[in-house]
Amino acid sequence: MARAFRFRARVITAAGILAAAFALGRCGGSPSGPSPQVPSLTSITPSRGPASGGTTLRISGINFSGAAVVVLGGVSATEVTVESPTSIVAKTAPRSAGTVDVAVTVAGRSLVLAGAFQYEIVQSTPPVVTSIVARGARTNEPAGFADLNEEITVTASVQDSDTPLDQLIYEWAAPAGTFSGTGASVKWRAPATAAVPTALTLTLAVIDPANRVTAATTISLHDSVKEVGDLARLFLLDFSDSTITSPDVVVRNFSRSARCSKPRQNEFDDVVKNREHYRIESSLIEPAVVNFQFGGRPCRVGTAEGDACAAVPATWQSLCLKTFDECTAGDRPRVTGIDYVAAVYEESSWRLCSSAFGSRDGISRPNFIR
């Protein structure tokens, strides 16, 4: 009996082994892998923010991977980043006020936190633009001035009681020219061509999460070399036309400011003297050579120091009408030389200030930039 019992035990054991082998064969011969990790949401912070958008959200959960899409009340968030398997960050876009669901799609699964975020109407103090200063780099160059194709710096001073200045948005605009840089201080390059002189308005919009304010500054745009040269030549052309008997007409483009009043009077007196003693029969007024530095280098003609100077070669053939210390009546003297003219920039315009005539050999030549 004992021997028979041992035999049956061996048979049962062998059958068990066969059954296990058969089961493994039906399952492909190897055990299945672990179940995929399913993502889930646990919370979102903060739970409220302004309807204007811009709130940075942190979404917590588990098993985050790959790219993610975040939608709040039907509006997609921006700057969505999966930071780690447990954290996603995103920034809210503008939306109407109200409580909304937050939907997150990650790892191919859509997850929702119902009523998890509230858009609010936030009352805030708008930014204040206290000043805008536009200035070029030349010594003593006035604010609000630019020459064609000149690059100047434009700087806004801004205050905001409830938004850090580095979080404000600055939008610069102009009808011509180009801006470079960002923020409260930028560069503006004037257009290379334009009808000048003219005024251009540079506009700044400053934006915080709930407000948008605008401010502007005006640029007086010039082609200074041409403008000063044209004024200097026009003065000499008028002087050369003896039919213009009014000295005021000849010196009409001279400044009456304190620094130019005496030189202007001198030019007025010279015109009176010329009309009394001479009749100019012919003249040649050549193109002007102009330099200007806004006082950065010497530019003095007579007693006047100008912001710009022009040198205009000129030749006159005149008839002496009345004998005096310079000529005898009936003589026809010929004079050739260079007229040096100082100009000043006043009230957004170029004006002449003084004039001095020198011979071509350099005698009596004023202090002039060349």
Class based on secondary structure composition and strand pairing: alpha+beta
DSSP helical segment count: 4
- Indicate the radius of gyration in whole angstroms: 43 Å
Order of helices and strands: HEEEEEEEEEEEEEEEEEHHHEEEEEEE
Shape: rod-shaped
Report, as a whole number of angstroms, the end-to-end distance.
135 Å
| Helicity, as a percent range | 10-25%
The poorly predicted ranges are 1-30, 361-370
User: Sheet with the most strands?
Assistant: 5 strands, mixed
For the largest sheet, list the strands in their spatial order.
Answer: 2-9-8-4-5
Strand portion: 35-45%
Total DSSP E strands: 24
Mean pLDDT: 87
Structure description:
There is one protein chain. With 370 residues, this protein is of the alpha+beta class. It has four helices and 24 strands. The chain has helices spanning 2-26, 224-240, 247-250, 261-277, and strands at 40-45, 48-50, 56-62, 68-72, 75-76, 78-84, 87-91, 98-106, 109-120, 128-135, 145-147, 151-159, 169-173, 178-180, 185-189, 198-207, 212-222, 278-285, 289-292, 300-301, 304-305, 308-320, 334-346, 349-359. The strands form six sheets. Strands 2-9-8-4-5 form a five-stranded mixed β-sheet, with no helix packed on it.
